[in-house]
Amino acid sequence: MKVRNHRLFFIFILITGSIIAVLGVVLGQLFPFYMESFFIKHNIPFTEEQIEQIKYQLAFILVILFTLAFLLIAYVANRLTNQLLEPIENVIHTAKELIKGNYRARTYASGPSVIVDLRNSVNTLARNLQEMDMMREIEDERLNTLIENMGSALMMIDREGNVFIANARFLDEFHLSMSDVKGRNFLTLDLPKELELFIDHVFLTELPYRKQIAIEIENEKMYKQVYGAPVVGEHGRWLGIIIVMHDITELIRLEQIRKDFVANVSHELRTPITSIKGFSETLLDGAYKDEKMLLSFLEIIYQESNRLQMLIQDLLELSKIEQHGFTVKFLPTSLKDVLIRAVEVTSPKMDQKNMDFDVDIVRDVKVLGDENRLIQIFTNLIMNSITYSPNDTTITLRIKEDDDYGIVEVEDEGSGIEPSEIPRIFERFYRIDKARSRNSGGTGLGLAIVKHLVDAHRGKIEVESTVGIGTCMRVKIPLYKET
């Protein structure tokens, strides 16, 4: 800016100096002729020496006058340049900074009112642009926060099919990174085929579309409620589409569990009720007169009523455990004492099948838990092992510990569980061998109760099983640590 001002100033001074120099030369050449004519016209005697002397004196005076005039003009030109050109240059520089996006730039020009008005207008424009930029940044931040924390997977695709927005939920679900998807066509991302077909449908119809799809990610089937809609800009210009996916896998699973629960409860209740009703009707029809048949039927009715009572008790217990706000009393508890009580409760059932306990307890371990609920956990596990083990076998009980948990293992020599069935054994009424477990008197709710009680203790339960060899149930309860 200053270089331009100096260049303009020097050009002006050069032109002005040249004009003054030419004017001085012309006056210097014409003045002697004017003096001679003046002397002759007025009959004033003169000599050549006088003319030369006057000529030199005049030249000296002209040099002094023109030099002073040149300096005065230079001073005035410099002041005008500083007052007019520099403010304008300053305003131009500020305007260029605004064009670059530097909305903090301001001009400090001064001078005539026109330039001051120009300065004020540029500064007002800069302030407005800065406020607009700040508002845009705030809106962008709000939008990004909303997109990243909306709890659903979101993806925006431009009209060419290239992804330009994908939130973290979407990237996590499909194990991608932003660098993998940004600017790439959605068909090159190796998305599930069902999702690609859904996106194609929205592109082709350019209309909002909603659909429930099932996709498989790393051998895990997941259900998604997908919504797609076109993105329309100003003047109805079609910009692309937006895809939002809600994960409804858990809802589908719970709905299926509810249906299974209703079906299973109906079935489990119908069987003993049907038996009791049938044998009662037979007795009322006259079978009670046969004492032997009467006792046999009454025994069956008694067993079925016991089974019905156990089923109702387990249902009530499971309902109570699943209620919101259910808690256990966390107190220092000896795992050894818990197992002794569980063994005492299950010993009669063990004797019926001529089974033995093998207890492997190196030392007692104290955990933080509810003693009665822990007894209930291990009683159910031991009873489950007895039920699914043949006669004359052994159930092994072990107590261990690691840095965080007290560990109890209940291992049997039963038929074992197929690996594909292990994830489902804690579901209500799920039975591996339905006919056998029903004949054994089980309700199908024991392991579901165990799982809920272990979770209430903030513990873990693990299953290891080999078909034909046996099953090991490993329960981990947080240790009691003295402070």
Commentary on this structure:
With 483 residues, the chain is an alpha+beta fold. It has helices at residues 2-41, 48-100, 113-148, 168-173, 178-181, 193-205, 249-284, 291-322, 335-352, 371-387, 434-439, 446-456; strands at 153-158, 163-166, 209-217, 220-232, 238-247, 331-334, 356-361, 366-369, 394-401, 405-411, 460-466, 470-478. A five-stranded antiparallel sheet has the order 2-1-5-4-3, with helices on both faces. It is rod-shaped. The two termini are 75 Å apart. Residues 435-441 have low confidence and may be disordered.
Spans of at least 5 consecutive residues with low confidence: 435-441
Q: What structural class should be given to the helix and strand makeup?
A: alpha+beta
Mean of residue pLDDT values? 79
What is the CA-atom radius of gyration, in angstroms? 50 Å
What's the N-to-C terminus distance? 75 Å
Q: What characteristic shape results from the CA principal axes?
A: rod-shaped
Biggest sheet: strands, sense, closure? 5 strands, antiparallel
